[in-house]
Amino acid sequence: MIKLMKMDESTFQFFINQSTRDFAEEKVKSGSWDAEQALKASKEAMAGFLPRGLHTDGAFLYSAVETETDTHVGYIWFNVTEGRSGREAFIYDLYIYEPFQGKGYGTQVMQALDEEARQMEIRRIGLHVFGQNNRAFELYKKMGYAVTDITMSKEL
């Protein structure tokens, strides 16, 4: 079983480096960014999203911890804002460390997030998934997320 624990500073430093690299790679794979400038652009984006790091208002950063062994298996980052129908969360990053992938932890993290969101009186959770990330897309569909819009492109 998974519990969400507020991220500590050392875990945040790992997270910010990992998330920045992953975001740059995904933007390059999607064709949105040039490979030479991607890491710089990703660092700038992260600085904009998390200007006060771990202490950014409205940002919630958690370690995903397996309760029986107290093992950190990944992390999740979401922000909370006031939306049209009340408090809304938006997932910016969910990552399960490679040794733990394919073992159901992603599903458990999403379930733990639902519980956390209910306690925070969040009425809606949104997210973005890159088109090439079919594994994440299937997880989100399984967890009840619906497609709200689709952006497509074609290389000529």
Task: Characterize the structure shown.
By secondary structure, this protein is α+β, with helices and mostly antiparallel strands. The protein contains 4 helices and 5 strands, in the order βααβββαβα. It has a 5-stranded mixed sheet, sandwiched between helices. Helix 1 (9-29) crosses helix 2 (35-49).
Summary?
The protein is of the alpha+beta class and 156 residues long. The chain contains 4 helices and 5 strands.
- Rg over CA atoms: 16 Å
Share of β-strand residues: 25-35%
Work out the number of β strands. Answer: 5
Helical percent range? 25-40%
Please outline the major beta sheet.
Answer: 5 strands, mixed
Topology:
Elements: E1 2-6, H1 9-29, H2 35-49, E2 59-66, E3 71-83, E4 86-96, H3 105-119, E5 122-127, H4 134-142
Parallel strand pairs: 4-5
Antiparallel strand pairs: 1-2, 2-3, 3-4
Notable traits:
4 helices, single chain, five-stranded mixed β-sheet, 28% strand, globular, alpha+beta, 5 strands, 156 residues
